[in-house]
Amino acid sequence: MKTKGAILWGIDQPWSVEEIEVGDPVAGEVQIRMETAGMCHSDHHIVTGATPMPSFPVMGGHEGAGVITKLGPNCPADLQVGDHVILSFIPACGRCPACVAGHMALCDLGAGLLLGQAISDGTYRIQARGENVIPMCLLGTFAPYMTVHHTSVVKIDPSIPFEVACLVGCGVPTGFGSSTHVAQVAPGETVVIAGIGGVGMSALQGAVLSGASKVVAIDPNPWKREQAQKFGATHTYESMAAAIMPLLEATEGRMAEKVILTMGEMHGEYIEEGLILTSKAGTLVVTSMGRMDESDVKLNSFLLSMLQKTVKGCIFGGGNARQDAPRLLSLYKSGQLNLDDMVTRSYSLEEINQGYQDMLDGKNIRGIIKYTEADW
What we know:
This protein is of the alpha/beta class and about 375 residues long. It has helices spanning about 40-50, 95-100, 160-165, 170-180, 200-210, 220-230, 240-250, 270-275, 300-305, 320-335, 350-360; strands spanning about 1-10, 15-20, 30-40, 60, 65-70, 85, 125-130, 130, 135, 145-150, 155, 190-195, 215-220, 235, 255-260, 280-285, 310-315, 345, 365-370.
């Protein structure tokens, strides 16, 4: 079918909204009419080249929610036309060694996320200007329609608004799980969250719901620090350096048992800054994504070992999208997880470049693209 989508034709180029052709679903695939798409910082990493792609053009978007319109053969029986679904940016086969071991966020299917070939048959599902298009994370939610493998699809409660449902495909479970699954925040602990965007605000809420006694939000943007207080932050600072002395005083010299780095782009020097805020036997969680071509990390190895600190990586919150997405949306329905206030602005697909500029300017916690009948 012919529709439109936001295509990237090269590094440091703007997103180009133009006609695309989306293939029909083959065995194991579904076609989805998109209702909303989240504008995650990870898509901007493709623009800057921080996440290298094998070739261009690339279709953006890996957060989204919509309705199933077509089913290919051999799809799971629990997926039907008309179902409301979200897209998980990492597929989960349930059979590979990582999945069997309980690490579904590390499913072996993730090895092909940036290559563009469909899981089902190794071909391409999207074309633009007669060329094959690589969809971000084998999804491409920056289009009103998409054809994807069922392992990337999670069925959700149809009463959940699409505007917030799209966030549980990446940003919310990534941040929330950083606190609950990876950092394993315990009641009474002090937790530092550095970087208060969509992922950071979700990590903050995860820490609050886990019973942290002090939740410290760090961000250079005054508006984001103000918003963090509404989501449960007990202390806010403009930088990790500025937080050192107040945190020493507030914790009687112990510092934070858990520190979670969720800034928009990771740099090696942030590790040492985060470890300074981390207590003895504490844990530093690195959720923030850095450039693939950067390998330098700054840390004091003496203090790392002598104070028995731990540094942990984190992808997708270390969880399981099929289990975590429904649970997070259940917390939303019960009023315990605030997703409504995380959506700062909605944009049309044609406004995508403005939306990303607003993100870079610190005006949004999360911006979303909202599709209408005019798009379908």
